[in-house]
Amino acid sequence: MEQKLKELGMKYKEIFSDKSSVRYFQAPGRVNLIGEHTDYNGGFVMPMAINRNIISATALRSDNEIHIHSLNFNNTVKFTLDKLEYDKKDGWGNYVKGMAKVISDKGIKLSGMNILFEGNIPLGSGLSSSAAIEVLSGETFSKMSGKDIPSDELALLAQKAENEFIGVNCGIMDQYIISTGKKNTALFLDCRAFKAEHVPFVFDDIYVVIGNTKKERALVDSEYNSRRKECEQGVKEFNNIIGGVTHLRDVSSKQFEEHKDKLAEITGKRCQHVIYENERVLEAVTRLKNGELEAFGKLMIESHESLRDLYEVSCAELDVLVEEAIKMDGVFGSRMTGAGFGGCNVSLVKKDNVDNFIAQITEVYKSKTSREPEFYICTAENGVGEIVL
Distance of CA 315 to CAs 100, 216, 328, Å? Predict the structure, then answer.
């Protein structure tokens, strides 16, 4: 890491022609172990921060401008703190600008600065590179301006930037785990009450293996909005039937089974996934605390089947990765992770089986899809923070 930061510092000086002393910050990507499409339904999720991240190298400027450069995009964006407005041509830079906007609106006076970004979170994979750069930007802005925003508050500001500045009506999960993650833990998060518990995730013989379909997630935005509307319709109908329902998490599986015949087919399928998925997350917390990985893995498989058949956000490529994974020795469970229609799956695999797992699934996946997958062997890491050499 020290050598990497030194190289990043040299690139900073070269790109910005600035010999100032540089500070470094990092924010990780995330993978969701279980609890999919429940966050915006006020439900439960269990993500973990992973050992893939975005790093910033930064120093203050003497004016009121923010100059940012991404080594991944090979692109520079410049803006002034006096005019923080969305501009389509600024692309990725709007995530940074959005954080400057919501922090400034909070009454925190930001300083001008240069920021260099570089990351190894695969773009478009569903591992939350956009949320990572939001949270990282917020941490960088606040600390460089002499402020210390609490991690849970930083998560809410990042969600606000995404909702109001970027215009994506996302839930809180991604920003929350990236802001508050702790090494060797998964996060049990109640997305309505914003109550969180770090659950130990320390297994000497287990890796979390993420498989990237390498399929572009072309349908995510439109289908995501459709699913939200379908769930909102379910809330309205259940509120009329049983009362007191503001989110689908207020409906138990028993109540669903009693009244499902009163719902339209599509509404019923969406509600069934969310309601049972919330119950799976609650059970998964208990299983993880007890070290019951086989039972935890079974819940992962059930989650994937529900996402495939009821919520209908999987795709052929994700199904191949999951179906092949659960056939193999040393695999406790596997499921799609993220919004769906491409992106990644996540599997719990014994360390001794990982090499064979990757080799065999790569061969089968290529033969069935004509695509080359990528695999990332992951551990549970800390959330956003400054890196001190």
Answer: 37, 11, 21
Q: pLDDT tens digits for 230-279? A: 999 999 999 999 999 999 999 999 999 999 999 999 999 999 999 999 99
Options 174, 204, 352, 355, the catalytic residue: 174
Cα separation, 335 vs 257, whole angstroms: 25
Residue positions counted in the chain: 389
Residue 113, strand partner residues:
60, 66
Alpha helices in the chain (DSSP H): 2-16, 93-105, 129-144, 151-160, 173-180, 220-242, 253-259, 265-289, 293-309, 316-325, 354-369
CA–CA dist 157, 99 (Å, integer): 7
Indicate if 309 belongs to the active site.
no
Q: What CA dihedral angle connects 371, 174, 189 and 25, to 10 degrees?
A: 120
Contact 299, 348 (CB under 8 A): no
Handedness of CA 59, 181, 52, 85 (dihedral sign): negative
pTM of the entire structure? 0.93
Domains located in the chain, CATH noted: 2-201+382-387 (3.30.230.10), 206-378 (3.30.70.890)
Query: pLDDT tens-digit profile of 170-184?
Result: 889 999 999 999 999
Sign of CA dihedral 66, 91, 337, 42: positive
Q: What is the bridge-based pairing of β-strands 113-119 and 206-212? A: unpaired
Residue 262, both tokens: 């009163």
